[in-house]
Amino acid sequence: MPEHLDRIAVRGLSATGHHGVFDFEKREGQTFVVDVVLGVDTREAAATDDLARTVHYAEVAADVIALIEGEPVDLIETLAQQVADACLARDGVEAVEVTVHKPEAPVGVAFGDVAVTITRLAGHP
């Protein structure tokens, strides 16, 4: 995340999705938790006290839940990229860090969390 940007974080967005490489994951679904940190210049919003001059985090949260609950993908890396793309499509978002947690992943041993974190910048493929 570039140092010159302010951060707006929405953490712990949780919903049931049907993502995974195994048939039972797609059929039965499981909980996914997503954390999003947006890189935004908030100075104009702060100076004007105007929501229209910043990123509406409730709308971002709704987008994330829709993606979790949406079309299944095999990898949480793919889901993370979809979330990043949706965030970067919003006006004012210059960077985003997305973490997708899969706490019920079929790992086969006891574990605390499985997660993928990606960082993407606007204008960079």
From TrEMBL:
Pfam families per record: FolB
Matches recorded under InterPro entries: Dihydroneopterin_aldolase, FolB_dom, GTP-CH-I_C/QueF
EC number annotated for this UniProt entry: 4.1.2.25
Gene from which this protein is expressed: folB
Purpose of the protein: Catalyzes the conversion of 7,8-dihydroneopterin to 6-hydroxymethyl-7,8-dihydropterin.
Domain Dihydroneopterin aldolase/epimerase: 8-120
Protein name per Swiss-Prot or TrEMBL: 7,8-dihydroneopterin aldolase
Keyword flag Lyase: yes
Tree of life domain: Bacteria
GO molecular function, one term: dihydroneopterin aldolase activity
Family recorded in the similarity comment: Belongs to the DHNA family.
Catalytic reactions of this protein: 7,8-dihydroneopterin = 6-hydroxymethyl-7,8-dihydropterin + glycolaldehyde
UniProtKB keywords: Folate biosynthesis, Lyase
Pathway connected to this protein: Cofactor biosynthesis; tetrahydrofolate biosynthesis; 2-amino-4-hydroxy-6-hydroxymethyl-7,8-dihydropteridine diphosphate from 7,8-dihydroneopterin triphosphate: step 3/4
